[in-house]
Amino acid sequence: MENVFEEIRTALVRAFKGLFSAYDVFCEEIQRTDSADETAAAEDWIYIDMQPVVNRTVNRWHTDRQVFVDVAIHTASEQNKTYYAIIPAVDGLIRPCFCFADRAITVADVGFRIEDKVLHAAFTLSFRDSSPEPEPLPFMQELDTNIK
Q1: Across the strands, what pairs with 114?
Q2: Mapping DSSP to helix (H, G, I), strand (E, B) and coil, where does residue 105 land?
């Protein structure tokens, strides 16, 4: 079974690849930005950065978690009007509810900004994680004793 962060990452990649099938979608590293070829840097790509922010103990079996996600979207045109056209689609992908594994998380808001000719969509996933309660120990059996 994958851990919760891997489940989120997998769902994000799948969702963005489904919406923007012509784009390269990365999470860990962008292989093509190190290229000396100028055309490679002008491609359409999406980089997803996840940062676990909070793990707060509720009780022995429950943990509240917050994961900050910053999605950087680059288009070859690098024009703001292209980014403005993309914003509603990205917003609909994330809000009002983002699903991963067996969960559906309500996302209250998504912040957008265009910085260095790249569109950024930033949001926080807040949810409670539960671990299974261990089975209770069996009750003590009757003890047969002989007292003389």
Answers
A1: 119
A2: strand
Tokens matching residue 34? 């190190």
Q: Extract the tokens encoding 107.
A: 């996302």
* Beta carbons within 8 Å of 18's beta carbon, 6+ residues apart: none
Q: pTM for the full model?
A: 0.78
CB–CB of 71/83 below 8 Å? no
Give SS3 for 6: helix
95-123 tens-digit pLDDT: 999 999 889 999 999 999 999 999 999 99
Q: Which of 72, 61, 41, 52 is nearest to 7 (CA)?
A: 52
Structural contact between residues 66 and 128, judged by C-beta atoms closer than 8 angstroms: no
Question: Looking at domain 4-30+42-130, which of 3.40.50.2300, 3.10.310.10, 3.30.2000.10, 3.90.550.10 is its CATH number?
Answer: 3.30.2000.10
Q: Are 58 and 117 in contact (CB under 8 A)?
A: no
